[in-house]
Specification:
Layout: E1 2-5, H1 14-34, E2 40-47, E3 50-57, H2 69-79, E4 83-88, E5 94-101
Parallel strand pairs: 1-2
Antiparallel strand pairs: 2-3, 3-5, 4-5
Helix pairs in contact: 1-2
Pfam families: HATPase_c
Keywords: Kinase, Transferase, Two-component regulatory system
Enzyme class: transferase
Length: 107
């Protein structure tokens, strides 16, 4: 697994930090379920007043029925006024991208 993150993420307000944590947690859980043993990259960056989460597994080897994980991630990010995308990457893998604004209250 490849992990990259900005040190400034430690100062996020608790609700936003929890949302970022849960997106990464669910993305990793999905990767273990649908792409066990495959390379995985996780990037957490802070720029433009937002935290950007990028999780990509390179090869889906065990596709299965959809659960509630992706819709739960989307809902969590939407409530904070962010954006969320989860989709096949066109190369056999799967990518989750979320942007969580640093400011502003839940919708």
């Amino acid at each position: 697994m490849e992990l990259e993150f900005d040190d400034g993420l430690r100062r996020l307000e608790p609700l936003r930090a929890l949302s970022v944590y849960r997106v990464v947690q669910e993305s990793l859980s999905n990767a273990l379920k649908h792409a066990p043993g495959q390379p995985l990259e996780v990037r957490l960056t802070r720029s433009g007043g937002a935290v950007r989460v990028h999780v990509r597994n390179r090869l889906v080897t065990a596709p299965g029925p959809a659960g509630q994980g992706i819709s739960g991630m989307r809902e969590r990010v939407d409530l904070l006024g962010g954006s969320f995308r989860a989709e096949p990457d066109g190369e056999g893998g799967f990518t989750v991208d979320a942007v969580v604004p640093e400011r502003g209250g839940p919708r």
